Amino acid sequence: MAASETAVELRKVNHWIGGEPVEGTSGRYGIVWDPATGEEQATVAFAGVAEVDLAVAGAKVAFAEWRASTLSRRTEVLFRFRDLVDANRKQIARLLTAEHGKTLADAMGEVARGLENIEFACGVPQLLKGGYSEQASRGIDVYQIRQPLGVVAGITPFNFPAMVPMWMFGNAIACGNAFILKPSEKDPSVSLFLAELWHKAGLPAGVFSVVQGDRVAVDRLLEHPDVKAISFVGSTPIAKAIYETATAKGKRVQALGGAKNHMLVLPDADLNMAADAAVSAAYGSAGERCMAISVVVAVGNIADPLVEAIRERIANIKIGPGDAEGSEMGPLVTRDHRNRVRSYVDNAPAEGAAIVVDGRDHPASRESGFFFGPTLLDRVRPGMRCYDDEIFGPVLGVVRAETYADALRLINENPYGNGTAIFTRDGGAARQFQFDVEVGMVGVNVPIPVPIAYYSFGGWKASLFGDLHMYGPDGVQFYTRSKVITSRWPDPSTSRVDLGFPQTR
Ligand code: NAD
Question: Model's pTM, two decimal places?
Answer without folding.
Answer: 0.97
